[in-house]
Amino acid sequence: MSDLGPGTRPGSRPRWGLLLLGATGGAGLALCVAAAPFVAPALRRVCLPFVPASEAQVETALQLLRGRRGALVDIGSGDGRIVIAAAKQGFRAVGYELNPWLVWYSRYRAWREGVHHNTRFYVSDLWKVNFSEYNNVVIFGVPQMMQSLESKLESELKGNARVVACRFPFPSWIAVHESGKGIDTAWLYDAKSFKTAAK
Q1: Contact 94, 72 (CB under 8 A)
Q2: Which residue from 5, 25, 42, 90 puts its CA 20 to 30 A from 159's CA?
Q3: CA 163 to mean position of chain CA atoms
Q4: Cα(12)–Cα(19) distance, integer angstroms
Q5: What is the pLDDT of residues 162-194, one digit of tens each?
Q6: Which helix (H) or strand (E) element contains residue 85?
């Protein structure tokens, strides 16, 4: 006796099954495409994950640069909050970020907050960017990258530059000022000091 329902041909499958299979596959592909920019940094030699800066961290970083002007760069700018806050304080602010979704979101936030004329966001690997045009640098780094970044900034920055390291200090440089507590600590470095020490 056949288990096929009336009007069903042998070997045929219900169409809803194919539709469900297609929808599931499409959703899985879309999820992979959306997640790839967030997962990819973890597969790099030095993982620099996106961890949003708290309001206290943003405030501390910019307090250390109070009274300064000119070009500011946030290395690994994430969702753009440091760049946007810096632009509101009069800096010409730029962010470099590897994750294109975060760059697009940062551009949207800058437009929404009315500072898009004073901000720029680029999708770029920080190791391929020359930072010589910036005299104010902010970095939320991880310990594994700080030694290499020290060498890069020593060779590229001009003598009037200031560097703010948030969460983790540079291993060899001597900070001219330290502010905040715990995870909100930030260190200020003067290029005159670390460039002279490197000679």
Answers
A1: yes
A2: 90
A3: 17
A4: 14
A5: 999 999 999 999 999 999 988 899 999 999 988
A6: helix 81-88
Q: How far is CA 179 from CA 10, 61, 176, 184, in A?
A: 76, 8, 10, 8
More confident call, 81 vs 49: 81
Is 86 within 8 Å of 80 (Cβ atoms)? Answer: no
Give this prediction's pTM. 0.76
SS3 category, 75:
strand
Give 125's Cβ-side CA count (13 Å radius).
8
For 45-72, b/e burial (b = at least 16 CB within 10 A) is: eeebebeebeeebbbbbbebbeebeebb
Which amino acid appears at position 131 of this protein? Answer: F
